[in-house]
Amino acid sequence: MNTNTPDTAVEELDVLVVGAGFAGLHQLDRLRKLGFSVKIFEAGAGLGGIWYWNCYPGARVDSEGAIYQYAREDLWRDFDYTELYPGWQELRRYFEHVDGKLDLSRDIRFDTRVESAVFDADANTWTVRATDGHTVTARYVVLCTGFGSKPYIPPIDGLDRFDGPCHHTGLWPQEGLDFTGKRVAVIGTGASGVQVAQEAAKDAASLTIFQRTPIQALPMRQKQLDAAAHSDLKKGMSDRFARRIDSFSGFDFDFLPKSALEVSEEERRETYEKLWEEGGFRFWLGTFNDVLFDQAANDTAYAFWRDKTRARIADPVLAEKLAPEVAAHPLGVKRPSLEQNFYDIFNQDNVHLVDLRETPIESVTETGIRTSDTEQEFDIIVLATGFDASTGGITAIDLEGTDGQTLREKWSEGVRAHLGVATAGFPNLLFVYGPHSPSGFCNGPTCAEIQGDLIVETLEHMREAGLQRIEATAEAENAWRDHVTELVGPTLFDKANSWYVGANIPGKPRQMLLYPGGLPQYLDNWRRSASESYSGFVLS
Ligand code: N01
Prior knowledge:
Elements: E1 11-18, H1 22-33, E2 38-41, H2 50-53, H3 73-76, H4 88-102, E3 108-109, E4 114-120, E5 125-130, E6 135-143, E7 166-168, E8 183-187, H5 191-203, E9 206-211, E10 218-219, H6 227-244, H7 265-278, H8 282-285, H9 295-310, H10 316-322, E11 338-339, E12 351-355, E13 361-364, E14 368-371, E15 375-377, E16 380-383, H11 392-395, E17 398-400, H12 407-410, E18 429-431, H13 444-464, E19 470-472, H14 474-488, H15 519-531, E20 537-539
Parallel strand pairs: 1-2, 1-6, 2-3, 4-17, 6-18, 7-16, 8-9, 8-16, 9-12, 10-11
Antiparallel strand pairs: 4-5, 5-6, 13-14, 14-15, 19-20
Bound molecules: 3-acetylpyridine adenine dinucleotide.
3-acetylpyridine adenine dinucleotide binds near residues 148, 190, 193, 213 and 504.
Organism: Rhodococcus pseudokoreensis
Family: Belongs to the FAD-binding monooxygenase family.
Pfam families: Pyr_redox_2 (PF07992)
């Protein structure tokens, strides 16, 4: 229920934060304690950002819970996840815990989707309007819209004709949906498709998975955590959090300091076995340091993954579709996901795979899905078709800067954002976890806190220096884009059509959307800018 009261007067704030996920809540807490007047506008009815919207069966985080939280001891000391990789319900419990400690909700306006913001160059403020008409003015707008707040629904003919429930994973009904005894179709095999399929396979009468590109899913090695495990975890938490800042991806592990090709075959095999057994993203972000750069090195990792995966699938035809002899793309350049029994469910009689490369979807009918060779009836269709990632949540808002252009128009030919945090022509607009920042390559809470702190420090600096306006220069954002392009050049990332490069959205310019230099290098760049009186920005 929307309990927001209609306000008549336009509220004036120092900072309006958009989004109540990890990033937005950190901004609210830090800025409020520093005496800024600050509020969050949140489109959902509850806390959690991505964890509010993605409440589909099986939704869970691909990072270990111990490090998928704020690094603050006052928050982690008396909170425990019951599983190594917690599910969405537990994440919501975590956000409630944080809210209980920090009393955040009182400054959050829920059910409030920002539709537009216009910069007033005389007053140096933004006027921000929500879809319900509620309006505020704020000196700064900090967008914490996350990487995945704009679901992508492909233009499949007849999708709106289907008579039964048809939901995107990122817009899942809050009241839930029971798969028991139902004929379920899942379109898409990214991380969301894998997770929802694992769950549906348990209870659905039939589960049909429509695959276009095979995912390279890695073993999660999920564990239930008891009191002894919690106590052990707590002992290492401070060290684990301290290590995040030195690692490429904001985790407590990093790439090995050696090439897959410089070691003996035996050592390579032993290393892969160890990473495989440890589970999680270690086989991806904790592996030899050239796997994402060198095709021959990557081939060794892919062959290991393929053989391990195929061994679990009884039907050789299915094995070839799910883990092909020849890789669809190098391992890890499209985001892998973590799986618990994804490859095993294909040995069940109720689970089927449709290979969309052979038989594409032609249309959705009132009762099911028609492909080029057959028509099947379904009770439920799940669209696990991903997101207009990284930029979509930002460009969904009509943001109008100093020259009358919207940000959507400006970025229609590609993203430019200095340090991934601000863009020329849009003063006092800052992004946390935005494009050209480590974002999708970085553990979410790490980025929310560490990049978030840099933004807080910048706003503090502005206030202390009596300044009212900060804007990235065109030269700096072009140079930053070129830096991103240079960094990604020697890697294998361009060899996959992934959301990392915008290739999952028809018409979206193809460019690396994330900062591929790793968190430490990103932070060095920030520190250099800050120490040079915020070079790359104009402050006034
Ligand atoms: O989306 P995706 P996702 N017809 O873009 C297919 C994070 N995440 O929601 O690969 C048929 O990865 C598409 O096919 P193809 C995580 O960062 C995290 O799964 O383009 N199929 C693909 O298989 C992840 O990377 C967790 O050929 C179509 C799928 O849909 C990101 O979110 C959990 C199609 C989309 O996969 C996105 O994951 C879940 C069409 N027209 C997600 N269009 C955590 O654990 C698209 N597809 C934290």
